[in-house]
Design brief:
Blueprint: H1 3-6, E1 25-37, H2 40-44, E2 57-68, E3 72-85, E4 88-98, H3 101-109, E5 115-117, E6 119-125, E7 128-135, E8 138-146, E9 150-151, H4 154-161, E10 165-172, E11 178-186, E12 190-198, E13 201-205, E14 220-232, E15 237-241, E16 246-247
Parallel strand pairs: 4-5, 4-10
Antiparallel strand pairs: 1-2, 1-14, 2-3, 3-4, 6-7, 7-8, 8-13, 9-12, 10-11, 11-15, 12-14, 15-16
Length: about 250
């Protein structure tokens, strides 16, 4: 390989890249989302400035993705924290646990999704939807939701899934000095709802050092939804630079 050819590689291994450069499209993407109250002081220890916490809320989200261009079939679980930035409401993406190596690689290298490998799953158990997260052999989270109780409008569903997300992009050099430290923002560009439902739900979180979802304990569930949609993710753009202290 010539020196001038190296720059044309997307990533390594050079003969079998960990991911492709496509912006993925998702068909029949299934969201199980449970919004709950937690302890404000615990949120304040995790949410970075200049994001602002309006209410002490957390979204536990489990997403089933059976048909994703370039990425295949996988499932993802995590926690989102409702925030605002310069008057714009969104969610701070705290953590994502999933079972797909290409999605982890592209999510961390190209964008800023806080992804780790784990074993999430979504399935129907009689009249109950189950969303479950295991880290290794241990349960970390178990959510149950009544099966399709109240139909939501497309507008309600789109407002939920198209909420902007804020994330931290952190890169360091070979001796640990920060090369890049930014707050970034993204949002779903286009989506159409297949169906959407609101139903009662319960959520159990279990202590685990490598997947500390239980650090944000469930005090009261305030909303839960089950949404299926086709969609395309948007690009990520920086909004604040921690190295310079400047808004971008």
């Amino acid at each position: 390989m010539k020196k001038e050819q190296v720059l044309y590689n997307i990533t390594t291994p050079v003969n079998a890249p960990a991911y492709t450069p496509n912006i993925p499209e998702f068909r029949s993407r299934e969201y199980i989302t449970i919004t709950y109250e937690t302890d404000r002081e615990r949120l304040e220890a995790l949410v970075p400035e200049p994001l602002v916490i309006d209410e002490p809320l957390v979204k536990f989200e489990c997403i089933r993705m059976p048909d994703s261009t370039a990425l295949g079939d996988y499932t993802e679980c995590g926690q989102l924290i409702p925030v605002s930035y310069n008057g714009v409401k969104g969610d701070f993406n705290l953590c994502m646990y999933l079972d797909n190596a290409p999605s982890i690689a592209v999510g961390r290298e190209i964008t800023a999704y806080p992804k780790k490998y784990a074993k999430p799953e979504v399935y129907v158990d009689s009249d109950t939807i189950v969303a479950k997260l295991c880290y290794g052999t241990l349960d970390v989270a178990v959510a149950t939701m009544a099966y399709k109780m109240r139909k939501m409008t497309d507008e309600e569903a789109l407002a939920e899934i198209k909420t902007p997300q804020f994330m931290l992009k952190i890169m360091r050099d070979y001796v640990g000095r920060p090369l890049l430290c930014q707050l970034v923002k993204t949002a779903i560009e286009k989506a159409n709802v297949i169906e959407a439902w609101a139903s009662p739900a319960r959520l159990q979180l279990f202590e685990h050092v490598s997947a500390p979802l239980a650090d944000l304990p469930v005090r009261k569930i305030v909303h839960s939804s089950h949404i299926l949609a086709n969609l395309t993710l948007g690009r990520v753009a920086p909004v604040f630079d921690y190295l310079t202290g400047q808004t971008l």
